[in-house]
Amino acid sequence: MLIDTHCHLDAAEYDADRDAVRERAFASGVAAIVVPAVDVASFDAVRALAAADARIGYALGIHPLYVDRAGEDDLARLRHALEASIDDPALLAVGEIGLDFFEPGLDRARQERYFRAQLELAREFGLPVLMHVRRSQDVVLKHLRSVRPPGGIAHAFNGSVQQAAQYLQLGMALGFGGAMTFDRALQIRRLVRELPGDAHVLETDAPDIPPAWIARRRNEPAQLARIAQVFADLRGEPVELAAKRTASNALRVLPRMASAFVRDAGPRPTG
Question: Residue 151: which of 42, 5, 270, 269 has the closest Cα?
Answer without folding.
Answer: 5
